[in-house]
Design goal:
There is one protein chain. The protein is an alpha+beta fold. It has a single domain, classed as Gcn5-related N-acetyltransferase (GNAT) (Aminopeptidase). Helices cover 27% and strands 33% of the residues. It contains five helices and eight strands. An eight-stranded mixed beta sheet has the order 1-2-3-4-5-6-8-7, with helices on both faces. Strand 4 and strand 5 form a beta hairpin. The longest helix is centred in the middle third of the chain and has 16 residues.
């Protein structure tokens, strides 16, 4: 069942989405956190990953395609992984460049956060990016994430060393920034 935000829908990945997922994976601007170089993923590699995820019953990870509600245009993908039930999870997002600054990434991020806190009951959501990825940091901060760890000079990007930054958002911080919602889980 898809998750709907104001502008976007998070839905399952389909075979027809694979070329966009490949393009996002091989674009250093949309995958700037990655240390997997060169960017030489092939369609067969992406297809294999898709098939493994499609036929997996693991509930500790999920991949969604981000599509616009109005035109159903696919604009990116969003994942969660390393889910430790009712405790923590890590998220990732990639949006095609032509859709940057349209509010779609923020809506997708907020939609997934609502699902993770409300439906899965996690206590903390984490993400990783590079210290030089100002757009990703600003997007995370807009939802209330804070820098919680910094691995200095851990990533080589654009011919320079950059910090690898972990950011997180605690459950109580999420609900404090969403007064229209009520946390139904008791504190630990």
């Amino acid at each position: 069942m898809p998750l709907e935000g104001q502008k976007i829908r998070l839905r399952e990945v389909r075979e027809s989405d694979l070329p966009l997922l490949l393009a996002l994976r091989n674009d250093l601007e949309t995958q700037g956190w990655s240390q997997t170089l060169p960017t030489d993923y092939t369609l067969n590699m992406v297809r294999k990953q898709y098939e493994e995820e499609t036929f997996s019953f693991q509930r500790n990870r999920a991949r969604f395609v981000i599509e616009t509600i109005d035109s159903e245009e696919v604009v990116g993908n969003m994942t969660y992984y390393s889910l430790r039930s009712r405790h923590e999870v890590t998220i990732g997002i990639a949006i095609a460049r032509q859709f940057w600054s349209a509010g779609l990434a923020y809506d997708a991020q907020e939609t997934l956060l609502r699902f993770l806190f409300e439906e899965l009951g996690v206590r903390v959501v984490r993400l990783w990016t590079t210290g030089s990825n100002e757009k990703a940091i600003a997007l995370a901060e807009r939802s209330g994430f804070q820098v919680s760890a910094r691995l200095r000079e851990a990533v080589f990007r654009r011919g320079q060393l950059a910090d690898n930054v972990m950011m997180d958002l605690l459950r109580e911080e999420y609900y404090a920034s969403h007064p229209e919602m009520e946390d139904h889980l008791p504190p630990l």
